[in-house]
Amino acid sequence: MKPASVADYRELARRRLPRMLFDYIDGGSYAEVTLGRNVSDLEAIALRQRVMRDMTELDMTIATLGQTWAAPVGLSPVGMAGMYGRRGEVQAARAAADAGVPFCLSTMGVCSVEEVAAAGTPPWFQLYMLKDRGYMRELLARVKAAGCPVLTFTVDLPIPGSRYRDVRSGFTGASGVEALVNEAWQGLTHPAWLWDVWLNGRPHTLGSVAGAVSGRGKVTDFLNWIARNFDRSVTWADLDFVRQEWDRPIVIKGILDPEDARDALRAGADGVIVSNHGGRQLDGVRSSVSVLPRVVDAVGGELEVFLDGGVRSGLDVLKALALGAKGCFVGRPWAYALGAGGQAMVARMLGTLKNELAVAMILTGCTSVRKADRTLLDIAA
Description:
The chain has 381 residues and is α/β, with parallel strands linked by helices. It has helices at 6-16, 19-26, 33-44, 88-99, 113-118, 133-145, 164-169, 176-188, 191-199, 219-229, 239-245, 258-266, 288-299, 314-322, 332-364; strands at residues 62-64, 67-69, 73-75, 104-105, 124-127, 151-154, 250-255, 271-274, 304-308, 327-330. The protein has one domain (6-372): TIM Barrel (Alpha-Beta Barrel). The strands form two sheets. The chain has an eight-stranded parallel beta sheet.
């Protein structure tokens, strides 16, 4: 199949990846209500079609946090991307650099921050606060030395959400012989992935935190260790600890309430990402886009506000910009594309989003993404 949409990249990834990995990308927490809302609430927003305007010149660039993006789209941090494609974080980072947009590396990435930075443009780095502050200090020093320009501090994961699909697929909960048989079967029934990733994509560790975990061999072992070391005691005061080790922009990811956004502002953040972790944490909460306008109204003049969650097309990107977002981050779309065919597919997916955004701009009369506002939306629809 020649992919034409994010849904097509998803289908190609479903065919190529072992079920446990595809479900890990694709699934959300509990009944996946919030996961569905992220997508459906964006779909329900109507754009306002305008005609007979000179749309010869389009400008998709934005300037934010000391950087210029070629389009208002970045790649969100996605854990274990190196299990979807060979050294997957490196492949995705290269595709993002070629497209002129940022790539954010997850703390739970298979490739280390040094490996990704050495492959090209230093990534943004997504930080989870772990209990071992000494190791956090060492990690922040490494991230800074690697040249990462922005730190994305994720605050909505004091404990991993309960994801039923991961239990059903055997990704979590299984052990011993049962787990070994399941993993072997899923690998053998997906030979292209087995050759590309399992055999030739090693080492399968979480590169940025591998030094803190001794005697572990599998990615799932690292994930279990990290789950035990998430720090539930973190408060806004802990941002002072991060600031002591980091003198570059900090963006808080996981904001879903205007008051939390104001707290982030008071704590000294430079930006926020409105996000419910892709529907993977607390199920039954509002979609990211439904709370975006209130967050923008609360802090938009003083903080950079980005959207993460449910973006599946360039049309969705324009809708988010019209509601006040500076830019959008996408997670599942690039993970699907990576699973479908590596760097080339991630690059193609980014091209798809850009092309869709261009069409949406032309047919709404928006010559520059920096001019996008609520007049682009058909509020009465």
